[in-house]
Protein 1
Amino acid sequence: MIEAQVDTIVGPTHYYGGLSYGNVASMGSRMQQSNPQLAALQGLNKMKLVHDLGVPQLILPPQMRPDVEMIEELGFHSVEEAYKKAPQLLVQCSSQSAMWTANAATVTPSEDSADGKVHFTPANLVTNFHRSLETARTADVLKQVFSSKRYFVHHDPLPAAQDFADEGAANHTRLNGVHLFVYGKGQTKIYPARQSLLAQEAIKRRHGISKVVFAEQNPKVIDQGVFHNDVIAVGHEDLFFFHEDAYVHTQEVLSKLLKYAPLNLVAVRKKELTVEEAVKSYIFNSQFLTLPDGQHVVICPTEVEKMPRAKAIVETRLPVDRVYYLALNQSMKNGGGPACLRLRVPLTKAELKAVKPSVIFTEGLYRKLKKIIIENYPDSFSPRDLTDTSFRKNCTQAVDKITKALGLV
Ligand code: SUG
């Protein structure tokens, strides 16, 4: 199997709305001016690096924002009225949070599913209103990209109720063929747990996965800003790189995993790196890749490079041949690192051939998308801009152009 990386182009209304309670970067950046053009170029640059390394990179388009249909559903007659009467709702309806593709869906490769097909469950993202707006379009785009019924099965998102709260692959790791699902319970004192066990049990049943371990996230780390498991642990093939405080019963989780398959465990002790430092550096949100020649590399955010204790862990403890540090600060300021920006889809060669060819990264597509972003994206954004009809028109046209360039509708 080859692990395709799926990233979404950041949209032209990328902003710091302070919308995610419990995500300390999002809360801390609230109302700062953003640079959507730079955000989109930083994301595209990561995709180029992945492609240049020889790994298949797929590209999804931004979602159309503001979500005018939702604004009307909420009883406003216009965007201007929403801005005047409920600016926070308008900011939520304009969020480009679909850029964090790790939250798009949970994916099960054909090797691990009962019917031998690749299964997708789009995440319902019910915990945050702005994120719940992504689900329908994400489901639609995934169906267009992975359209072959011979190879791909698309489930509906789980019921849109907190009982089934689901944040997709950010809380799911495939370790040497074993599926680790991490959920939170309502026992946090400050911040909400976003992922429910009920959702993950349903995904296990509907995808027909057999080797599964469920692990409860430590409520104390959720209260320190670990809003998804991918902020405190990451797996790749047989490597499991995690912080010792990540789970309620870490030893039990490890022994359950090891019963299924051998693993290379890299545990980070709190005396080496505190949870606070992990959240600040996003070291566990690094993106691991296996290259066609079998080499292993990791893409870390530059925030790791700037923190000597985090950098030392990356450079001395990880079984990788090379480390790349990438500037992704536009996304990082909202709590999105390299691993948040990508959804992993392990595919066989035949399945990869069945992917919609027009979304696969090529040099030509890269140049085309870069040109659209440079010519059409604003280099600063604040919500007041949404009251300008020509600004909104430019945003709509930019998203349209990208969607068309990717051969999607
Ligand atoms: O859901 N931030 C996202 C970040 C998601 C990161 N993804 C993973 N860890 N996989 C979130 O909290 C902030 C938007 C704002 O404040 O404007 C936001 O939605």
Protein 2
Amino acid sequence: MKRMDPFGRTIDYLRISVTDRCNERCLYCMPEGYKGWEQKPDHLSHAEILRVVRVAAGLGFRKFRLTGGEPLVRADLTDIVRGMAAISGVEHIGLSTNGTRLAALASSLRHAGVQTVNVSLDTLDPALYHRITGGDVHRVLAGIHAAVQAGFTCVKLNQVLMRGVNEQEIWPLVLFAAEYGLPLRLIELMPLTRTAVLTEKNFLSVGEAMTLLRQHDELIPQPDWRLGFGPARYYRLKRTGARVGFIGAMTNLHFCESCNKMRLTADGKIRPCLGDHGEIDLRATLRATADDAAVRDRFLLALQRKPFEHTFRGAYQPCRPMTAIGG
Ligand code: SAM
Ligand code: SF4
């Protein structure tokens, strides 16, 4: 059964943050590294996540994405995937990762039931990668290679755009993505945490990224491409053949019109919109009763409370890091 929000949008996509922990510390996300703002008992257990997925699937959710924090730091991730894949109604399981642990885990995650993987890759330059994330780009490249070998139906690359930091990396990433046949998505910085990089000076719009790309190649719009279930607008680059998606959450005023998702935070809150502070506590319900009807009611309440659009352009004040909300 399809579930609609008050604005007539079908909501069938749930992004689940399985942890707020991460082994990197990206400038735009968690620049000071993990501070332990959530204690482990607050995190939903493997069994609780599966219960939520079962209820969500019963309500018409079909697409699920595991994210974080870095989902691959969670030791029981493969078991969670296997459990989800066995739930009736679950049609798609995707994963968002920084890729650093993918080389070891890609094959088992694929076998467990992950269909598609998004890997964050802001630059190919090892020194710059280290500056942005604190990590080692060679591990990510090994992870991407393993993901391609493992046979996921799609492996996408994500670059967060930062003026003065990595705009010169857009074209090398396009060439890399084209060489390996992987779609690349360029993402506008969103005010998700209070970090030094989140200034107007550092903000680079997808429009400006397009202008930069047009100096190298012709961009041909592909309005029919839906490479996944997200809001990216795709283009094919004529000469290189690259597939590039633009995620303009800040500058595209129609961004929220086709929104199809809600989020489950690592500590068990349903977040109807990434860019709105409203949350509905699910964890207390999960722990108070074995009755799934109560969990279902919380979901329906969240659906009713889904706002028409995010408030990033207005008075939004970051307070909960994206690692906790689930990117
Ligand atoms: N750790 C995984 C990763 O890095 O892909 C999954 C979680 S991460 C929060 C999910 C996505 O959110 C990544 O593509 C990341 O680049 C993006 N992201 C994080 N903070 C952001 C920000 N302030 N603005 C835009 N995108 C952001
Ligand atoms: Fe970690 Fe991903 Fe956030 Fe980077 S974007 S700090 S890899 S959760």
